[in-house]
From TrEMBL:
<feature type="transmembrane region" description="Helical">
    <location>
        <begin position="216"/>
        <end position="237"/>
    </location>
</feature>
<feature type="transmembrane region" description="Helical">
    <location>
        <begin position="161"/>
        <end position="180"/>
    </location>
</feature>
<keyword id="KW-1133">Transmembrane helix</keyword>
<dbReference type="Pfam" id="PF01061">
    <property type="entry name" value="ABC2_membrane"/>
</dbReference>
<feature type="transmembrane region" description="Helical">
    <location>
        <begin position="21"/>
        <end position="43"/>
    </location>
</feature>
<feature type="transmembrane region" description="Helical">
    <location>
        <begin position="55"/>
        <end position="75"/>
    </location>
</feature>
<dbReference type="InterPro" id="IPR000412">
    <property type="entry name" value="ABC_2_transport"/>
</dbReference>
<keyword id="KW-0472">Membrane</keyword>
<keyword id="KW-0046">Antibiotic resistance</keyword>
<dbReference type="InterPro" id="IPR051784">
    <property type="entry name" value="Nod_factor_ABC_transporter"/>
</dbReference>
<feature type="transmembrane region" description="Helical">
    <location>
        <begin position="96"/>
        <end position="121"/>
    </location>
</feature>
<keyword id="KW-0812">Transmembrane</keyword>
<protein>
    <submittedName>
        <fullName>ABC transporter permease</fullName>
    </submittedName>
</protein>
<dbReference type="InterPro" id="IPR013525">
    <property type="entry name" value="ABC2_TM"/>
</dbReference>
<feature type="domain" description="ABC-2 type transporter transmembrane">
    <location>
        <begin position="9"/>
        <end position="197"/>
    </location>
</feature>
<feature type="transmembrane region" description="Helical">
    <location>
        <begin position="133"/>
        <end position="154"/>
    </location>
</feature>
Amino acid sequence: MSNLVVAHTRYFLIEQLRVPIGILASALFPAISMLAFVVPFAGGEPKAATMATGSLMFFGAMSGALIGLSIAVAQDREQPWNPYLRTLPAGPFPRFAGRILATIAVMLLSVIPVLLVAAVFTEATITPVRLLLGLGMLVAGGIPFMLIGVFIGFMLTSKAAIAVSQILFFPLAILGGLLLPPTMLPDFVEVVSPYTPTRGAAELIWWAIADHSPNTVALVALAGWTVVMAVAAGWAYRRDEGRRFS
């Protein structure tokens, strides 16, 4: 990792920690949901509690990936310093990589309160190896959401990015089975659920932490979403660059 990438990552993390409301929102809402819904209804069932913990871990991480990154990218574009940075010889990669690495760090920080609630108040069980694998799957499952965030950030102003990312966030979480187990979803939602990126990410995490057999359709859909959003995010960046520097 180059010194420039490290410097940008450090800068973005300090920026986040100085105004920690985004991290707190991503971390506390899932933990409160654990206390309100998982602990009383599924806390005594080891596998159900473990899967619910994974779902709410990703719920918080998804907030940082989708909402946090879209707003950050949009706000960057509105700063007069940003066009200057994009003309420097180092190119866009160090700053972009730093932003992604800082987002991943925020995603991982957001899961800590959920893990603490699960450890203290439920019968959820996991080995250190499975926990590390689950965190890896959480990051992997967050990739399409980071790409969606980048796409929104390059397409919209910061005020519009706030609204659009939040409008997308909750329907995707609900359709993906993060707030209710797939078996409890209404029939029409259960039909749509495997085709959402949230369900694919959840399936990866459930497989990693609870030995759950993943839904193949959901995993294929997750890969498809990742490819499509990578193309869309790249196009949005080139479009923005053409408007600013052509």
